[in-house]
Design a protein that fits this description.
about 170 residues, three-stranded antiparallel beta sheet, four-stranded mixed beta sheet, alpha+beta
Length: about 170
């Protein structure tokens, strides 16, 4: 029982399970049939026009994960229902890796290295983020991507737009 000024107690599950959507199933089947894992990953590299700190970008990614379930979603096997989407209430662990690099680092190669390792589908996030901070110039490049079961190019563009708006302190409408 609660008073008029107290909110009633609600139970919020730490993990929710949902049926895998129709667009996810063919991706999972093709991965199970031996298609290389890199064929299921999509990624971008973008130069940051507004420099940031590790703490600030980590906080921005945490807020992004709070708003977008795709950054908190994994895929688990269910004996009764087959594949299920597992959505965590909060993002699991740190989303960002920060790397100081020399000015001769090849961005394309680093993006490939970020996205090539297979994702553990049952261990969200199925996203990866890395900042390359060039030691001589101070330039920053954000590498990011996701498994195609939880993202597509349009979703990556949305993430890029939200981060781009947030860096100078604005918010997307």
């Amino acid at each position: 029982r609660t008073s008029a000024t107290e909110a009633p107690e609600t139970s919020i599950s730490e993990v929710e399970l949902w049926p895998a959507t129709r667009d996810v199933m063919p991706l999972l089947r093709s991965e199970q049939q031996g298609t290389p894992s890199t064929a299921h990953n999509i990624g971008f590299a973008v130069r940051l026009l507004t420099p940031t700190t590790c703490e600030r970008l980590t906080a921005m990614l945490g807020e992004l994960g709070d708003r977008h379930a795709a950054l908190r979603t994994g895929i688990v096997a269910d004996a009764e229902s087959g594949q299920r989407l597992q959505v965590l209430r909060r993002p699991a662990g740190e989303l960002l890796r920060w790397s100081a690099v020399g000015d001769d680092v090849d961005v394309d190669q680093r993006l490939r290295e970020l996205m090539e390792p297979p994702f553990d589908l049952a261990a969200p996030p199925l996203w990866r983020f890395e900042i390359l901070e060039y030691t001589a110039s101070g330039q920053q490049v954000l590498l990011f991507g996701a498994h195609h079961a939880v993202s597509d190019a349009q979703s990556l563009v949305l993430v890029m737009a939200e981060l781009g708006a947030s860096l100078p302190g604005a918010r997307l409408d």
